[in-house]
Amino acid sequence: MLAFSIKIGAQAGAGVMVTGRSLAKCFTRGGLNVVAYPEYPSIIRGGHNSYQVVVSDKPVHSPLMHSDIVVALNQDAVLFHKDSLSKGGALIYDSRIDAQKFKPRKDILLFRLPIEDLLAKSGATAKMANTVALGAALAVSGYPFGLLETVLRDEFTRKGENIVRENISAARAGYDHAKADFKGFGKSLKPASDKRKIFLEGNEAVALGAVKAGMKFYVAYPMTPASTLLHYFCENDRKLDIVVKQTEDEIAAMNYAVGANFAGVRAMTGTSGGGFSLMVEALGMAAESETPVVVTLVSRPGPGTCMPTWTEQAELRFALHASQGEFLRVILAPGDVDECFNLAWRAFNFADKYQMPVIILLDKFLGESTFSTERFDESKVKIERGKIAKDLPELPPNTRFRRYALSADGVSARPLPGEPEGMHVATSYEHDETGYSSEDFSVRKAQVDKRMAKLDALVKEIPGPALYGRKTADVTLVCWGSQKLPCLDSLEMLAEKGVTANLLHFSYLFPVNVKEVQKALAKCKKTVLVENNATAQLAGLLKEYADAGFDFHLLKYDGRQFFPEQIAGEVAKLAEKGFKGRKEIRIGDADYEYYNTQRYGL
Amino acid sequence: MATVEELGVKQRVQWCPGCGNMGVLAALKGALAELGLNRHETVIVSGIGCSGKMPHYLGTYGFESLHGRSLPVASAIKLANTGLTVIAEGGDGDGYGIGVQHFVHIMRRNYDLTYIVHDNQVYGLTTGQAAPTALLGMKTKTTPWGVVETPFNPISTAINGGATYVARGFAGDIPHLKELIKGAITHKGFALVDVLQPCVTFNYLNTYQWFQERVYKLEAAGHDPKDRAAAMEKAMEDSKSDYKKVPIGLFYKEERPTYEETLPQIKDTPLVKHDISNVDISTAYEDLE
Ligand SMILES: Cc1ncc(C[n+]2csc(CCOP(=O)(O)OP(=O)(O)O)c2C)c(N)n1
Fold this sequence. Notes:
The complex is a heterodimer of chains A (602) and B (289). By secondary structure, chain A is of the alpha/beta class. Helix content of chain A is 37%, strand content 20%. Chain A has four domains: 178 residues, Pyruvate-ferredoxin Oxidoreductase, domain 3 (3-Layer(aba) Sandwich); 182 residues, 3-Layer(aba) Sandwich (Rossmann fold); 75 residues, no CATH class; 130 residues, Rossmann fold (3-Layer(aba) Sandwich). Chain B has one domain: Thiamin diphosphate (ThDP)-binding fold, Pyr/PP domains (Rossmann fold), CATH 3.40.50. In chain B, the strands form two sheets. An eight-stranded mixed β-sheet of chain B has the order 2-1-3-4-8-7-10-9, sandwiched between helices. The longest helix of chain B is centred in the N-terminal third of the chain and has 16 residues. Chain B starts with a helix and ends with a helix. Classes of the chains: A alpha/beta (602), B alpha/beta (289). At the A-B interface, strand 7, helix 7, helix 8, helix 9 and helix 10 of A face strand 2, helix 3, helix 5 and helix 11 of B. Strand 17 of chain A pairs parallel with strand 2 of chain B, so a sheet runs across the interface. Bound molecules: thiamine diphosphate.
């Protein structure tokens, strides 16, 4: 059976996010597995927001195209989401909406919720309309009320006891009404255990990993969809004992991050593509001066301002090539919240050990979607700071520490300011071993060779792609970063369609561990590369470094990630045709249907 | 603690003979020596330009960053380790041109650091284009018909922008400049020292002699640096007098809490000394349950 999916829709600014999050937390506290996925336009008021909660007692990873319950708080929500309802699904809608005028399908249940009356009865304010609907949705799901009370309490405590009480009674009114009146919904959800789980966004998981790694300084300029990372750090700075700085722009942010790392503090910056564009020069400075730095790049569609609140995986090449000149860097693309945590702490070790920039590459989909998970396994966490030099011998008068001394592994000792006898100049100019600018050809070549020599040890720390599902399969899906989530959920759907499939997922994108990649690909029969971009950037990278190729490229770049149903559908079609046909398959979603006066006779 | 002698580095100096930067270097060395600062606890952060070479000639820690970016790099070094003395420096193009957004915002923040600007009215390293402080009518490579843009006034901008120590020195008067730099370093907060620095190769107009004929010391004129209105008046005296009178010295000084002082996280221990061997994130988990 597919996972259970509830979608709440309302006008932007109506509080859908808080309502949806409360519902999702309520399921999380019942020990269920939850994915929560917000969609919102780049407008503060007036656009349409939706929040989808996918829940199951089995693992779930991704938003789905279908819903079992739609909660419609305005007319648009009825129109936009009614057709996503599965057979027997329930449309719960505010009784002030005339749902009939949109000719709802006959095979769904229509639950008309008198929100205004229930608000009045429960003594709650009009602002709590969402909470009434929340209670009703919970009742239709067959879920007990108790956990919602604890969630609402935690959500509203800081607004005072009155607000808490009013919200609880509003939810209760919706819940009781639905229990009594809304009959016939066939599915039901029950708490699975009382094991405490955490519920967090990809961005927050990166934040936790960074803090665990000893990140003491976060510096950024706001930009969706990286802003929640900044907000999380700001909200918790004193608790986490870190310093957070909002700068005048991203140019400053990256220069701050490099400066703090030079001074010996693990520091990170974060942004989306537009901000990263402004960071590029200082990224190169980090490389030339061999200063560690970590940046979290949460991508959205580009180029330009493009679609700020939507998602795309089109910045792999940008992350890889950003800045003039040639230098090594590490690019990590977590595929779920656990990987966000683990790759974040590892990022700081890579940066310190190899004294180079590290990019954690996320996208809006993973960064801003929320997932239930266990507390992270911290047993593997290590703090590796590399060659930080201490207790140095006395420098001869009027000389400098040889900060850029040539060494077999390419990494030189790095004294931190404050360390006696370690005085040196870090510089963005090409330099000799002491850091003095040099334009001698031999010095230039030796320093480039030194920096590039880091690859040997680095690549040994880069694992190959991870295999999910059965060892051998008729077809192997190949993807990177966030698209792991819909790909994983599509495997079971494919099995139901009689196609055996598995998944190769890349979370370490650069440098490429050629041997491991080739070994993994050699075991595949048919391959379908799945990328949330228009140009199959991973395919290009693997062609270049590992001489690898794929039978099919399944590409989507309309602003949304893949849904598992889409991947399963396209791959099943390929299987049916004996894996023949055009190599490139480009798909996109249907637009929301706006008021069609003819169709609805309006 | 280091003497002027010990502060030197055996290095070819890459400035033209007679360059005003020599005077700035001498004054800075003198200031560091007289203040008795430890070399390993001092960091000079420069941008890119002729002026940006400075860290290489001082035996302290240094960071030669990017064109226009000395301030953000220096700010972070200070936040990371409040135990360090941090001095940012660079050219007028660097600080008032390409990096002006950092200049404007750092003054609001009042970090405890010093910013020395080598103000030579031209872009030296890139062979003599007009800088933001170039005077009206001045002919340069990029202004063959003379500058038509009103010169940027760093002093009035700094007073207006919230800098808590605003001074101007002259590279031709090393003892005076040294005292201004000492005052800037000991001042608790953001200190600007704008230095009139003749570029002997590309600026034919604002020569040593040109400045010598025009500069006068605010101290001698009885200026009170606590008087903001008077400071603003003095800041505009050069342009108002059609550059017949160019005041140097301390224009303005004010005590205001530094940015660092507002952060309880670093009240007792600088960030760089926080123990990160096993950070406890259990309360973060609790908040996310
Ligand atoms: C992003 C960028 N743009 C342009 C340059 C070229 N550039 C180097 S120094 C400089 C100007 C130098 O003038 P100024 O900052 O006044 O310093 P001076 O050399 O006069 O000391 C320029 C334009 C650069 N290095 N980086």
